[in-house]
Amino acid sequence: MGLFDLFKKKKKSENRLQRSSSNPNSEHYIKEKQLILNDSNKSLEERNAAYLDIRQEEERRLNLAYDFNSIEGINRIPVPCREVNGSSSTGRVEYYLRGQCFARHWDSGNIELALACLKKAQELMYISDMIWKKDDFMRLVYYLRKAGKNQEADIEERKINSYFESKNELRDSFSQRLKSAKELHTDLVEITNSGICCAECAKYRHRIYSISGKDKRFPALPAQFNPKTFSYNHFCLSVWPFVYGVMEPSFECKDFIRYSNRPFVDDRTSEEINNYIKWQMAEQQKLERQEKLRQEAQENAERIEALRKEFLWIQKNLPDLCPKSLSGYSRMKNAKSKSYQKIIQEIHRLMNAEK
Ligand SMILES: [Zn+2]
Asked: Which of 161, 184, 209 is the last residue of a domain?
């Protein structure tokens, strides 16, 4: 078989794979396995096998959508990216990148590729609808240090700290509002959304909740909003005390008890969805701009440090030729002045003399 035939054959089999990715059977297959996984009457072995089958199918679909085996491929994954496994958390791109995919490359010694996976996962985690804990973020810092990239690790660590500091502010604001509710002798709060809203937060907005869970007319306040078990990490929602019979909810509906108990689903309008996507893009661009500025500042600092070392060396070894100050030296170097060229000549002379 000629080379061209081989190529054609390869293309054909790739096409077959492509076709099966858009195959509705894949969706059906996962749904069937999920039924087994969630069926408590099935044996543990059966459920475990179903879990592994789901993960395998999710992995296959991910690998059809993106190239996870080269640094270029990883870098090409857009942020935000296109999810290929629906709403499944284990099938998410960031979940796969930082888990299985990272481990496979790291264990086989492809350190740079493995780190590229973690870095991309981290970018996706910052804007994810899924809740990631600080420890999850620190994984990148840990492995950067393990790979000897301490400077990069420091930068990432600072970024993570400032991200979580603003999260604590969020917890404090929720905690403050619940305290106000207590002062108003009400067990009820309203969770509202005034600006942009993501798919996850949309499920919880525009409802009255019972803080204690004892007022059965309303759903209990989910644990993620409770200061003791706080894990909410978005900025879409806010909480307000609500006094029954005195206040009206800020959202519009006919019967707020019934409305508060509607199914917990993403009920955003297409306009709201578009607004959220636009906001997310703008946030990403903002982050990129900040990162670029930070990088420039760091490069500048490194350049000055290198210049200072040169200056100190000249001061010590060629005191007669050395200018009085670092800025003087910087100026003469930039202008490549005669005195600077003299210094260079002397350095060469010294180096040759050493040989
Ligand atoms: Zn949100």
From this structure: 161
- Whole-number Å distance, alpha carbon 144 to ligand 1 midpoint, is 30
CA 225 to centroid of ligand 1, rounded, Å: 12
Task: Note whether 48 and 192 are same-domain residues.
Answer: no
Query: pLDDT per residue over 80-137, tens digit each?
Result: 898 888 767 788 999 999 999 999 999 999 999 999 999 999 999 998 877 788 889 9
Q: Which of 119, 139, 161 is the last residue of a domain?
A: 161
How far, in Å, from the CA of 264 to the mean position of ligand 1? 14
Which residues form the domain of 329?
Answer: 272-354
Angstrom distance (rounded) from CA 301 to CA 308 = 11
**R_g (Cα) of the chain, nearest Å:** 29
Please give the distance, rounded to the nearest whole angstrom, from the Cα atom of residue 184 to the centre of ligand 1: 28
Residues, CB within 5 angstroms of ligand 1 (ion): 198, 201, 234, 236
CB-neighbour burial class of residue 105 (10 A; exposed 0-12, middle 13-18, buried 19+): buried
Q: For all residues of the chain together, what is the average pLDDT?
A: 87
Q: What is the pTM of this model?
A: 0.50
Q: Per the structure, how many domains does the chain have?
A: 3
Same-domain pairing of 280 and 247 = no
